[in-house]
């Protein structure tokens, strides 16, 4: 019973509808309960049901205050549906309509900008989840030292992984991202689509080895490489990431550059990594969770299925698909892990890391938790180090 309550609480706080919760419980967790039982359990645990929500919505002023906090950061790039999902996962009882009207008042310029940006996309076909993972790196923050790499499932559009680190050019690091997800699922996708960069070489060899270890006849078409601009699924998602997150940090870093507080040299990049990388990584995980739990609306001209991404990935038969995950052995995974390189505990160069920790300890400073605190700490550390080096900033 405790496990059932934990699962129901987890799914409910993700913002899933009652029907979605029942489907996940029955298919993924092998727990079959009725809608009436689910509503009773939610009521006993103090979670509001639909009639309660209609009569007991959260105070609009509290919701507005929460939205203002979100709009002060990268949340200013979100639309009303993402903001609504964020409110639900934060514990507020609010409708999409209320959030939409609040955003019109709190961020009218952002609403108007999103209304003008409507794109026509190419047609994409995929038979089911794990048929193809699209892997690519995102370099918009690389001039400032932050390198992002991600993978997306072609059928459900669910983000498989999304990581920020000091490099996305080391093939053993990229292979580590891949093997970590393979081990979680104890299976590998039928195919991987990536670009021709050398950072994908180790991952390509591992994919061929894992497929060969289960079916020695299939090794030729399990990895597809080509130009990055033809990797449609992940390239489309990078545009989403820029609108909803990356543009905010690009603007913050560009402000530092315009004020001559960032020269692009080794020290400045390492300081950015020391102060900002953990915050950016945490925000990326939040963005991925919001994306994976949001609902894709049905489009008149789209061939891809519509619905909640996590359900499309977990329950593909409900959306006309079939899971194509290929099981692999633990021995094969362990053999691949020996060729991977895990991210170290230091987000930047060890010498710079030790120096920054010493300066923070001497001045009784704590690790930043927000973008503003990170930028402030960056400026302070930069000034201290340049002063010690007798360089005028």
Automatic annotation (TrEMBL):
Source organism of the structure: Coilia grayii (Gray's grenadier anchovy)
Superkingdom of source: Eukaryota
Domain Integrase core: 124-302
Protein name listed in UniProt: Integrase core domain-containing protein
InterPro entries per UniProt: Integrase_dom_put, RNaseH-like_sf, RNaseH_sf
PANTHER family named in the record: EXPRESSED PROTEIN, PTHR46791:SF14
Pfam families (alphabetical): rva_4
